[in-house]
Amino acid sequence: MVTTREAYFRAMADALPAETLVVTSLGNASYLWAAIRDRPENFYVEDAMGLALPLALGVAVARPDRQVVVVEGDGGLLMHMGGLITVGAAAPSNLTVLLIQNGVHAASGGQALTNAGLDFAALGLAARLKGARNIETADSLRPALAEALEGSGPMLLALATAPDPEVVVPPAGFDPVATKRRFQDAIEAPRYVPILFGGGRLEPRRR
């Protein structure tokens, strides 16, 4: 029996320390995680397929004192392979990549991947990540995630599952601006204030 995304996410919720920063890709990755464990330390990516990993890499580099976990899809990763290569080059020890390997581009209609049989763990190792492995059960995810969170990353864990086309209803509608601002507060980041006709400035955080 194939392990469901929900089973993996519930194992995540049990295993992740409260202070872990979590970035989730668009669609059910964000909707289901919000339904299970909505917190200011979550950043839900909307309408930007394949860009959860680059965003999480930036967070991991900016906050090396915090563990960062990103949930990306196999289809999204294949759309932006440069993100994985850059993770291998930057090698942040505090970044863990959880790859939902369901063989489809779920968020855009369920189209099959061009190479659904690709070994993503081998791909992670070829990209010079510190560790990568294929995961098939929620029980095996728990110890692998615990190992990754010890700071030996970057680590990629490819989670084998079946497509879940039924859209999960999150506890509340997503407001991208509100998501960004509460995440900025959670990581104590200054807010960027754009200026008309280009440029901008960083606004100091209010204590």
In short:
The chain has eight helices and ten strands.
Description:
- The protein is α/β, with parallel strands linked by helices and about 210 residues long.
- Helices cover about 35% and strands about 20% of the residues.
- It contains 8 helices and 10 strands.
- It has a 6-stranded parallel beta sheet with strand order 2-1-3-4-8-7, sandwiched between helices. A two-stranded antiparallel ribbon has the order 5-6. A two-stranded antiparallel ribbon has the order 9-10.
- The model has no long low-confidence stretch (mean pLDDT about 90).
Q: Beta fraction of the residues? A: 15-25%
Total helical segments:
8
Rg (C-alpha, Å): 17 Å
**Overall pLDDT confidence:** 89
Strand ordering within the main sheet: 2-1-3-4-8-7
Order of helices and strands: HEHEHEHHEEEHEHEHEE
CATH architectural name:
3-Layer(aba) Sandwich
CATH class: Alpha Beta
Given as residue ranges, the uncertain stretches (5+ residues, pLDDT < 50) are: none
Helix content, binned percent: 25-40%
Q: What's the β-strand tally?
A: 10
What fold name stands as the CATH topology?
Rossmann fold
Q: How many domains is the backbone divided into?
A: 1
| Multimeric state | single chain
CATH superfamily: Thiamin diphosphate (ThDP)-binding fold, Pyr/PP domains
- Class of secondary structure makeup: alpha/beta
